[in-house]
Amino acid sequence: MNLLELVKIRHSVRHYQKRPVEREKIELLIESVRLAPSASNSQPWTLIIVDDPVLKEQVAKATFSTALSFNRFTLEAPVIAVLVIEKPRVITQIGGWLKRREFPLIDIGVAAEQFCLQAVELDLGTCMLGWFDEGKVKKLLSIPRGKRVGLLITLGYPDPNYPVRPKTRKDAAAMSAFNRYPQQGADVR
Predict the structure, then answer these.
(1) Where in the sequence is the domain holding 37, given as residue range(s)?
(2) Can you tell me the distance from the alpha carbon of 161 to that of 122, in angstroms, rounded to the nearest whole number?
(3) pLDDT digits 0-9 by tens, 80-135
(4) Which of 48, 63, 107, 181 is least surrounded by CB atoms within 10 angstroms?
(5) What Å distances lie between residue 24 and 29, 31, 68, 117, 164, CA to CA?
(6) How far is the C-alpha of 100 from the C-alpha of 136, rounded, in Å?
(7) Which residues contact 3 (CB under 8 A, 6 or more apart)?
(8) Is the dihedral of CA 3, 23, 113, 43 positive or negative?
(9) CATH number of the domain residue 134 falls in
(10) Who contacts 5 (Cβ-Cβ below 8 Å, separation ≥6)?
């Protein structure tokens, strides 16, 4: 499968089979994150794979509450990957300060998408989560106080009976331009 095919079929999976993910596949996912590019090659992340069923359930429960239950599907996923943001190299910190950019956030986004695309190639499904109780996750996983959890990714075999919604995206002309920012009402493509 080529990259564009992977991108086309990659979607957020919110229903999983009760089937463990093989260790060999998890090792390939770890390798995809390890090889991700980053600003000044800082690699500002630690990837924690949570596959112990009891601990995974506790982490999953940190993604929803009785009032906000939209992430309850996390209980179905046999694995949750946690990306912890690490301090980048000094040159990246200086560059980030000068340019007012959070390079580690960009970098973990790239690493996370490589994880998700690798998962698709392995017939696995994922869903990136930005909504979770960071304090609970840090406590459960013994993440040091000064660290930030960037995001969680559920992982598992998609439920084959779960209907995949068609991707609805903007037309290419509505989200891209050549050589300059599009002027309102003008077609620059």
Answers:
(1) 12-162
(2) 19
(3) 999 999 887 777 777 777 778 787 888 999 999 999 999 999 999 999 999 999 99
(4) 181
(5) 9, 11, 35, 16, 26
(6) 30
(7) 117
(8) negative
(9) 3.40.109.10
(10) none
Asked whether the beta carbons of 63 and 152 are under 8 A apart, the reply is yes
Residue 165: CB atoms within 10 A of its CB come to: 8
pLDDT tens across 5-32, in order?
Answer: 999 999 999 999 999 999 999 999 999 9
Overall domain count for the chain: 1
Phi, psi of 156 (to 5 degrees): 175, -175
Answer for the pair 15, 73: CB distance below 8 angstroms, yes or no: yes
Q: Is the dihedral of CA 68, 137, 115, 25 positive or negative?
A: negative
Query: Is residue 187 included in any domain, yes or no?
Result: no
What letter does residue 129 receive in the DSSP assignment? E
- Mean pLDDT of all residues in 161-185: 86
Q: Is residue 53 part of a domain?
A: yes
Contact 146, 46 (CB under 8 A): no
168 within domain boundaries: no
- At 147, the amino acid letter reads K
Report, in this order, helix, strand and coil percent for the chain, each rounded to 5: 40, 15, 45
For residue 114, being part of any structural domain is answered with: yes
Quick one: tokens of 154?
């559920």
